[in-house]
Amino acid sequence: MLLADKSTENSANFSKFAENKRMRYFISAGEASGDLHAAELIKALRELDPEAQFAILGGDLMAAASGVSPTIHYRDMAFMGFSEVLRNLRKIFGNFSVARKAIDSYAPDVIVLVDYPGFNLKLASYAKSKGIPVYYYISPKVWAWKEWRVKQLRRLVKCVLSILPFEPEYFAGKGVNAVYVGNPSVEEINARIASSPDRADFFASCGLDPERPLLTLVPGSRRGEIRCNLPVMAAVAARHPDMQAVIAGAPGIDAGIYSAITSLPVLSGVTTPLMKHASAALVTSGTATLECALAGTPQVACYRANGQKISYKIMERLIKCPFVTLPNLIAGKTVIPEMLVHECTPDAVDAELVRILPGAPGRAEQMAGYELIRRRLGTNPAAATAARTIIDMQHESA
What we know:
The chain is an alpha/beta fold. Helices cover 51% and strands 14% of the residues. The strands form two sheets. The protein has a seven-stranded parallel sheet with strand order 3-2-1-4-5-6-7, with helices on both faces.
């Protein structure tokens, strides 16, 4: 295993390695969160390798960081659930064909995959067939389900750049090279909170009532997630007329997706301050639950999907770990309530919300859990450490 803290000396020698070569990176991310994390990685690679060149599958943030347009935008890649994937098979196969042609024409020195395993592991296989080293930043959650993907990671990926502190030990036992580089959400949320306006200024700028507590709804970054989870969240919000409920809009999602479900206001581009200044939040399971924990706001995690009990029973059999949400996985215990599939009803979600409102008994308990999560995540700058690890490994193998 390559240790991240050995990298300073190696990185100092990178200029010699790259003396007559401009490194070409091909980076693939298929969702809004991946676009964000990949953009920070691109910036970190540029810091260490100023002559770096990039080709990207991703979004606007990656485009801004790299200075190139996405070969495929993540809006045309993010499909959720079996039925949505089935309906879009032609588009998915078309995307993969475009990606292969882009790799062939660009001839990258390195491919970095960011999450989105259904697509990216196929890309890893193609890269391997071309002899291109592959790094996986924010790897598939194989310890939770689809453990057979471990074999693919072992065969196809040079190094997993892990953002969860328990993953390297798990991967080591499976013969996969992995390094914990830190969790990017820690840095990102800290920076966003530090630059956020105070409550009075934020409420004034957004037209919110300073006299009423805020309930933030975070229904997800994909259309399917929003359609499944926002109706439940809006129904719960309606039970608390003393609170003002606001939806945190996701990048690239048309306003009509929200307005077709509820008339609640939508604020885009301000998710972190909406979390920070909220009395509580309802959050679709995913990266946003960890961001909410790092923002210090009590929350209820929701994952409605199709809401069928049989889906839950199937999920119970497939998932290999006791928790679904990142805060609980990192803490190793229940910190936030997980309302999943058929259990994600207005009645059940509201019962958990009431427990974490100001003055309620569950609030202090959840906040103590948040402190444990921060300790376990540490303070490593994830993107910078990941970039340094890639460069060091390429230098060592040159």
